[in-house]
Predict the structure.
Amino acid sequence: MTTTTPTPTVVTPPSPPFLERFRAPAAFLLGAVLLLGAAPVVLSDFRLNLLAKYLCYAIVAVGVSLAWGRGGLMVLGQGVFFGLGGYAMAMHLKLTDAAATGETLPDFMQLYGTGDALPWWWKPFANPAFALAMTVLLPMAVAAVLGFLVFRRRVKGAYFAILSQALAAALSIWLIGQQATTGGTNGLTDIQGFFGYSLDDPVNQRMVYFVIAAVLLLLMIGARQLFVSRYGELLVAVRDSEERVRFLGYNPANVKLVAYVLAAGAAGLAGALFVPAVGIISPALIGIVPSIGFVIGAAVGGRASLVGAVLGAIAVAWAQSTLSDAFPAAWTYLQGLLFVVAVGFLPGGLASVGVVLRRRRTAAPTRTTGETA
Amino acid sequence: MTVILNQSFTGISIGAVLLLIALGLTLTFGQMGVINMAHGEFIMAGAYTTYVLQKSISSAGVSLLVALPVAFLVAGAMGALLEWLLIRRLYTRPLDTLLVTWGVSLMLQQLARDVFGAPNVQTAAPDILTGNISLGGGITFANNRLFILGLALLSVLALTLILKLTPLGRRIRAVVQNRDLAEVSGIATGQVDRITFFIGSGLAGVAGVALTLVGPIGPTMGTNYIVDAFLVVVVGGIGQLKGSVITAFALGVLQAVLEYSTTVSVAKVIVLIAIVAFLQWRPQGLYTLRTRSLA
């Protein structure tokens, strides 16, 4: 990504004392645990279920913040990885659902008549350990292959964005085409159980919510550690000046590849958790349009700020489901406007509003913020 | 043999549509590095222009001929406006233009839905374009497809002549090759950008008129083509007309042949794999502008 934007990122204060360095993250973590823990008490089952869905999008946003915010890689194909994770999980759950009723084939396969045998590539997904591993490893493997081929040859940033979009289009078209083995346009629907727990039971739904919330928090902690690590610095350096990093003896292709693969893993995990929370995975959830949707939350909240990206993803998903039901037309205009304003005029997202205002107040006399923008 | 010939003609006609769309893109992409996702909606604008004109002009043939220049102007004006309002402000952040113009495209789609209604509409084709030309032995060419092919080739010719022979074309080429040098040589690059955007978007409008001959007109019609058209530009080489022409027809024929031997969805996947493999060989596309830049 040679032509990446000089995004106004988080201002790094000049290395505060050891204890203070952890005060803000610890306070945030405590607040997040309290909020997420209180949600099941306060919210109705229906709303809790919606929140679980938004948290899945937030998990994708953690990866987007890493790859796009820190690494400058415009990841417009996250739907692919979300879908791979989601389908891997849904295939396993469909198979166990079928086994519970004494069938060998999932319901849609019986309907569309593929014969008696399960397709060979469905068979391993009956094993829970394999299916769970695949929800993360499959997306990461696909990302590794594409990323390796693209970054190694220094394909331009714009090309990468278009290729990842084309991949999203191709996967959703392929899934639609394979009606007999993937459920086609409908996708894999009507999932009943989750590793032996019935998803109809609100208690189990609450359990799924807690799993999702825990995964989100763990990923955020992990991502934060990565951001402040040596690798995190290197990633930002590649974003801001790939050539300089190359001349310093590093290989920017590898640095970008790691960020892309990790982001894909996060999206795959999110897709896998989305399935028990919502009970469906379909091509409509992973094509070009939803793939771009995955980045808008991060863009609105602040792509380079982890917390901003996560909160942005939750806020946009919430706005989408409340507004698009009540005013479908108005929501579409608003969504378009969000893209234009957030990306065009506030590239740091809402997380940067404070920084922008503070800078404006102190801008004239001292310009020592140390930022490139 | 007959099947192969007919199938390649289908491929060539897919290629012609791709070419019409990619022509404008390669111009705007090449000039400013802008990824204009709203290009698909300029196609839609051209198609709806045809629809509106046909309501007031009863003869389908006349309305089609009138629609071509009018759609060019309508879509071109929209493009110039977009450039003036948004894109020129994002000049230093080309990748972000993708998301910004995607936002614009969402709004334009909704606008079309509000103005013309969500269901697809249709225009009547002129009688002369509804038949087939038969070459004997079961080989037939559809007239409307031939018309689109002619239109695409004519557009390439016109654009080539403008770029090669006119002072404007020289300025455009200068900006594409080295913006800074063009600027210090006294070329008003901002103005050239706007004119380029006008022409590029206008070509999208012309593509929209052509698409009314082969399919319905709807708010999301542009989205169906935009990614494929971008792939043409990427494989052909940014800002390279030659590359776009060759790639559009190559991808069209490849798609058609694969669709015949496999299925539509498998063909899409194989074409994408072929493109990624191709970029291993030529990461900058088929034809590359030689510059001294490190990237």
Notes: Chain B touches chain A through 45 residues (CB under 8 Å). Residues 284 and 295 of chain B are 10 Å apart (CA to CA). Chain B has a mean pLDDT of 87.
